[in-house]
TrEMBL record:
Gene3D superfamilies, alphabetized: Nucleoid-associated protein YbaB-like domain
GO cellular component: bacterial nucleoid; cytosol
Coiled coil: 4-31
Name of the protein this chain belongs to: Nucleoid-associated protein D0X99_06005
InterPro entries (alphabetical): YbaB-like_sf (IPR036894), YbaB/EbfC (IPR004401)
GO MF annotations, alphabetized: DNA binding
Signal peptide: none
The organism of origin for this protein: Algoriphagus lacus
Assembly description: Homodimer.
Function as written in the Swiss-Prot or TrEMBL entry: Binds to DNA and alters its conformation. May be involved in regulation of gene expression, nucleoid organization and DNA protection.
Keywords: Coiled coil, Cytoplasm, DNA-binding
Length: 111
């Protein structure tokens, strides 16, 4: 027989674990780099850019367009890296809590 009260308890427990994990996301960080490390971008789990570092040799007017491209590339790499960390963190927080239902992708639930 289906235990609705037991299921509701599991849902509340999962919600609490998700909120706890989301609160920790601000402490997750990821780095993306481009130009063989000439540009580095750091982001956090709230998908906010924390810091941009760049080689001083890029700080010339003639390199303005290239610098812009390198910043964009490094930022995109950092965002991809943090997305993976967020998914891993949220998956571990809810492991065993949410049933694995074939055909149902809950991977975007936390993004």
């Amino acid at each position: 027989m289906f235990d609705i009260m037991g299921m509701m308890g599991k849902v509340k427990e999962a919600q609490a674990k998700i909120k706890e994990a989301q609160a920790k996301l601000v402490h997750l960080t990821a780095e993306g780099e481009s130009g063989a490390g000439m540009v580095k971008v750091y982001v956090n789990g709230e998908r906010k850019v924390l810091k941009i570092e760049m080689d001083e040799s890029l700080l010339t007017p003639k390199d303005k367009e290239m610098l812009s491209d390198l910043i964009v590339a490094a930022t995109n790499k950092a965002m991809e890296a943090i997305e993976q960390k967020i998914k891993t963190e949220m998956k571990s927080a809810t492991e065993g809590m949410i049933p694995n239902i074939p055909g149902m992708d809950l991977g975007n639930l936390f993004g």
